[in-house]
# Entry
Amino acid sequence: MDRKLTDLWVGLFVIAGFAALLVLALKAGNLLSFNFSETYQVLAKFDNIGGLKVRAPVKSAGVVVGRVASVGFDDQTYEAVVTLAMDRRYGFPKDSSAKILTSGLLGEQYIGLEPGGDSAKLAEGAKIKSTQSAIVLESLISQFLFSKAAEGKTDSKAADGAAPAGTGIAAPPSLGAPAGSGKADGKSESKASMTSNNNKDSK
Amino acid sequence: MRRFIEGIGHGLIDSIAKMGYGARLFWLLLRYSGTSFTRLRLTITQIHFIGNYSLIIIVVSGLFVGFVLGLQGYNTLQRYGSEQALGLLVAIGLVRELGPVVTALLFAGRAGTSITAEIGLMKAGEQLAAMEMMAVSPIARVLAPRFWAGVISMPLLAAMFSAVGVFGGYIVGVVLIGVDDGAFWSQMQNGVDWMEDVGNGVIKSIVFGIAVTFIAVFEGYDSQPTPEGVARATTRTVVSSSLVVLGLDFMLTALMFSRG
# Structure
């Protein structure tokens, strides 16, 4: 075959190959949304991060404003330490709160950032003080059973004074306790009431 | 009984000798590969032969693999009500695994065999010996350009396979079945990392390219210089390079994607 023609075809082949690679990186991959111009790091401590992964998005009002840079464990407080790499274009008040949320029923977990009212902004290395852990399905169910059992108890007490049926169903709280983070009971219980309130609201 | 044990010993010595021979050839291939870049024409002709002519089979297979992934993925995902994740499934499956692996298998069948047969026939026709008589190294003149052409072509072909496959998944998923267009792409872009997934896929395909082309070149160079020997060498190329590709794929996947 003619030399020039071979060159042409080989050139086309190579160009097509690189074009395919580019399409994969841009259209299928996240090369476009990957580079934040600059980031600043913010720490947040959680009792339980559930299935949060490194590089999970940090969203505020549904917009991605950062990514999880690393997940660590603090063996002094027994909490998970999550480092967030926030886009420098977006500043947040110092008293913003972070929640671990799930996109959809079976979706991946991400961090939802709710801005507070402070005029000072989160700076490099700042700590987000108010956090809410991931909802663990098992503890949610045990809380639900617990509250059901408590209702049953009061009903049966009202009915015949003794509560043999109630104690039978009241067992789940003891199952539920280890499912929590193993922290002080007061705190986890306040959280529990918070989550169950949220649950009722959404219903 | 004794013959059986002798057979085992013979097989072991044989295979070790072959490994050593292969390692030496690999070293010589790298040492003499300067020619394939100073005389670029040799390599370009081979890329034309190996790469361009494999294009049709790669693109068509990619398209159909994408179709099938779209259909099967949709069937499974819609049971869980998450058919929007179809784009993610198709793209991850293609970029990480199917693209490099299926391309390498097809490449072994399409290009590897022709390299082996060509070199084997050159050997059978004593063309390689004639070259050596003229003080032209057959490794530099014949083997190295084919090797490098294969190594260059393979990642490009794999990238095209994956890109066409994603497009095939799009045709079935979005155009035919009616998955939401925006969700298809955005889920894909959320889940596919350009370094972690696309980059590692490219690394895989380069490794497979080296493995398949080297096996093809080696089997051709090592073949018995008879018609039967060449036929056997060609068969061995397909069998061993397919097995090597699958084995390497497992190892690379374990290395690349088992973290976290």
Summary: Residues 32-257 of chain B form one domain. Chain B has ten helices and no strands.
